[in-house]
Amino acid sequence: MNYNAPLTQMKFLLRDVFEAERVWASMPATQDVSSDVVDAILEEGAKITREVLAPINRSGDEEGVHWSKEGVTTPKGFKEAWKTYAEGGWIGLGGEPAYGGQGMPKMLTVLFEEMLYASNCSFALYSVLTSGAALAINAHGSEQLKQTYLPKMYSGEWSGAMCLTEPHAGTDLGIIRTRAIDNKDGTYSITGTKIFITGGEQDLTKNIIHLVLAKLPDAPAGPKGISLFLVPKVIVKADGSLGARNKVSCGSTEHKMGIHASATCVMNFDGATGYLVGEINKGLAAMFTMMNYERLSIGLQGLGCSEMSYQNAVAYAQERLQSRAATGAVNPQKEADPIIVHGDVRRMLLTMRAYIDGSRAFSLYTGMQLDLAKFHPDAALRKKAEDLVALLTPVAKAFISDKGFDSCVLGQQVYGGHGYIRDNGQEQLLRDARIAQIYEGTNGVQAQDLVKRKVIANNGAFVTLFLNDVRASLSSATHTEASVIAALSGAIRLLEQATDRLLKAAGTDPDYAGIVSVDYLHLFGLVTFGWLWLQVADKAVALRDNMASAKTTVDSAFLDAQLVTAHFYFERLLPLADSHAHSIQSATSSLMTLSARHFSR
Ligand SMILES: Cc1cc2nc3c(=O)[nH]c(=O)nc-3n(C[C@H](O)[C@H](O)[C@H](O)COP(=O)(O)OP(=O)(O)OC[C@H]3O[C@@H](n4cnc5c(N)ncnc54)[C@H](O)[C@@H]3O)c2cc1C
Predict the structure, then answer these.
(1) CA dihedral angle for residue 444, residue 445, residue 450, residue 453, rounded to 10 degrees
(2) What's the CA gap between 43 and 93, in Å, rounded?
(3) Residue ranges of domains in the chain
């Protein structure tokens, strides 16, 4: 597979649509970040993903990981690739500068993470979990923990893993059984079994830093009794060198549908030495710092896979000759026309493109809010950004990964039977994208989070905050056609009506929110993409009409293609909002009528 990062579109969104340089200049922590530096990083990111990671993607899928009692080995080429990758400083790209990170804004790291997932999903996970674990340690760990662990994690000498799930506890972490005993010497003894741990064991790094959720003996029941512990695979001595093996072992690895080169491990903690991160019984909250970033990242997994699938599908559609165009032969000297002439093939490609470019804009917008929430000097602006991040994170995770998977199905379909054959790579992308809908909280659970915690719990205040911004864009969109404004205004009304219905039903029908949550999330996602496509289209017309004076890196052919894709979105995809809105408003009584016993055949 040849992967070429879509740098033109990435730079257009960063510079022209979101005016990132202006955002960075407004915050002391990012004011030295310039477009030139960012361009150089993106170019280098495109190079390493194209030349180092993409070439070992398919072989990694075929070979998978190997487990033995001594440990887990990754597929051929992964160790060497990790060394090159780590030496390039990529793991600490968004890391804290005081401990060796590069302090780059999230608006940049989301673009690089997309490249990582597009070129090699399995490899990406080792890196993304390391930066995610480092983020949680930086936000909640003691100064000693930060100094001891962060520099080695940013440099890629050590990696990170996130240990939440247990055999009986996935979504419901309140019932975990892993125990922590206070050793009264600043350490804790951790005992329990965690399953499905990504990168829980591997041969890429000398140490693995596990962030483990566990309960103290006197902890309150449920989520309020969970604490977070740092448990290294190898104990780190006072001078920073590696000492004895900790009592942590990998019992086995899972055989699974996709991401074969990512080690998914059963991890046994047998009185392992751990260190408290943050406060006792506040572990879930600490973990959520990491989760907002990780959840966006998992959306990017779906986006990356679908971008790769799109690149393959376009190349194939231009070469594969089958049948004639409906309006007459376009390729009379050959026995058939390329399949890209057919309306249905174009429907598939444009659907992929509209969701992919929309997802990229959505992840950049959410990344921008994460940057504002973390770095902006104005407390009111930080608070607004925090609220928007809270509202948008479940949508970004679930809608982007759902549309990413759907797009991979279309990318496979463009290949016909050849998409089902392993050699062509499309089926791997579909398998690798699928897990993004399941882990980091299933997409169904993301929808519950959206409707219950982010909409009903604040009586719709976050939705109003968001829609105020959407309306402001509608009134300032001076270059956009009336039909687009009307289409988006109509979809916004549907979202408002659905929100009203949710709020009204909250006090009277306890099941309603859970029943309509996925429809609500998809309605929300479609409106959000409409808003983002409006901004893209408006900017594209403004630039195209002033090409001579505009300071932009893109040409008019690129802008025309953006406009056509925007129109396709408004004409052919935004109408899907109607069906979700209709379902939300329809009767729900059939859902809870059948007794559990009567579901059986
Ligand atoms: C390849 C892979 C890698 C993973 N990596 C990690 C990792 O690194 N670290 C880690 O800790 N975990 C990891 N996981 C675990 C993953 O996060 C969980 O599988 C996921 O959160 C779902 O939990 P579960 O599988 O126990 O499903 P369950 O929680 O049992 O859910 C089963 C079904 O019930 C639904 N459901 C559950 N509760 C509710 C509810 N309240 N309302 C509505 N529907 C509900 C779910 O949506 C789902 O459809 C990984 C899993 C896999 C497969």
Answers:
(1) 150
(2) 14
(3) 286-442, 453-589
Q: Sign of torsion, CA 411 413 414 420?
A: positive
User: Domain 286-442: what homologous superfamily?
Assistant: Butyryl-CoA Dehydrogenase, subunit A, domain 3 (1.20.140.10)
How are beta strands 264-277 and 227-232 bridged, if at all? antiparallel
For 450-487, write each residue's pLDDT tens digit: 999 999 999 999 999 999 999 999 999 888 889 999 99
Share of residues in the chain with pLDDT > 70 (%):
100
d(CA 148, CA 331): 65
Q: What are phi and psi of 239, to 5 degrees?
A: -85, 5
pTM exceeds 0.85 for this model: yes
**Single-letter code of the amino acid located at 463:** V
Expressed in angstroms and rounded, the spacing between residue 215 Cα and the centre of ligand 1 is 20
CA of 442 to the centre of ligand 1 (A): 6
Please name the amino acid found at residue 7. L
| Cβ neighbourhood burial of 241 (10 Å; 0-12, 13-18, 19+) | exposed
Q: Which positions are annotated as active-site residues?
A: 440
Question: Which residues' Cβ are closer than 6 Å to ligand 1?
Answer: 162-165, 170-171, 196-198, 256, 264, 435, 438-442, 444-445, 448, 514
Looking at ligand 1, which residue's alpha carbon is closest to its atom 20? 439
Q: Which of 438, 453, 520, 592 to mutate to test the pocket of ligand 1 (most atoms within 8 A of CB)?
A: 438
Q: Look up residue 316 and give its two tokens.
A: 């194939």
Residues 456 and 313: their CA atoms lie apart, in Å, by 41
Distance (Å, whole) CA 339 – CA 324: 8
CA dist., res. 55 & res. 49, Å (int): 9
